[in-house]
Amino acid sequence: MNIEALYRDIAPKLTNWLVASGSGYHEACDLVQNTFLKIWKMRDDLRDDDSAVSGLAFTIARNLRKNLVRDDSRLTFVDEIKDEDAGSVGPGALPSDSAYLRDRLTEAFGKLPPILREAYTLFQVGEMSIREIASQTGVSENLVKVRIFRAKKKLQEILADLRVTYLA
Fold first, then answer.
1. pLDDT at position 89, please?
2. What is the largest CA-CA distance in the chain?
3. Percent of the chain with pLDDT over 90
4. What gap in Å lies between CA 10 and CA 64, rounded to an integer?
5. What are the pLDDT digits (tens) for 49-86?
6. 159 within 8 A of 108, measured Cβ to Cβ
7. What is the pLDDT averaged over residues 36-56?
8. If you count Cβ atoms within 10 Å of the first and of the last residue's Cβ in the chain, which end, N or C, has fewer?
9. Are residues 110 and 153 in contact, defined by beta-carbon separation less than 8 angstroms?
């Protein structure tokens, strides 16, 4: 098993998934490194099945993230942009459009139930297959499809005003 090749393939997806799930970029990078450290230590016991290792990597990273949040009761989220540098945020102010959209997407994802958010981010951001998500979460493939569909529908409802503003 070539751990280095697996790292090159899985690490970007895993990092994106962790960031989409609420971790900061640097925290996500640390979690990915710790995940692959654990995989490296258990490399002799792993099968030569890349999809199994991919699922294992996501499971380890999710558990490490849960432990990190549980262990750090003082965990706070710090905005990347200082208030004085942000200016006014709203549609129409061209320089802040991307910041506005990022804030709206973050808010919309925060409104999703955790099981829908997990399925959607594993599928879209983590680029996992329906089968891999079902295996990792312990539910049927049909239930994974339903959760992804419901997440998309809910995001469309929450962000409906953006379709009018930006597509008009």
1. 46
2. 56
3. 17
4. 16
5. 666 788 888 889 988 888 877 665 544 444 444 555 55
6. yes
7. 80
8. C
9. no
* Contact criterion met (CB below 8 Å) for 144 and 134: yes
- Sketch the domain layout of the chain as residue ranges: 3-71, 92-167
Tokens of 54: 């991919």
- Alpha-carbon span 92 to 143, nearest angstrom: 40
pTM strictly above 0.70: no
Which CATH number applies to 92-167?
Answer: 1.10.10.10
pLDDT in tens, 26-36: 888 899 999 99
What per-residue confidence (pLDDT) applies to 94? Answer: 44
User: DSSP string spanning the chain?
Assistant: --HHHHHHHHHHHHHHHHHHTT--HHHHHHHHHHHHHHHHHTGGGS-S-HHHHHHHHHHHHHHHHHHHHHH-TT-----SS-HHHH---STT-GGGHHHHHHHHHHHHHHHS-HHHHHHHHHHHTS---HHHHHHHHTS-HHHHHHHHHHHHHHHHHHTHHHHHHHH-
Q: Which of 58, 69, 48, 63 is nearest to 3 (CA)?
A: 48
pLDDT at 146: 95
Q: Quick one: tokens of 12?
A: 């970007």
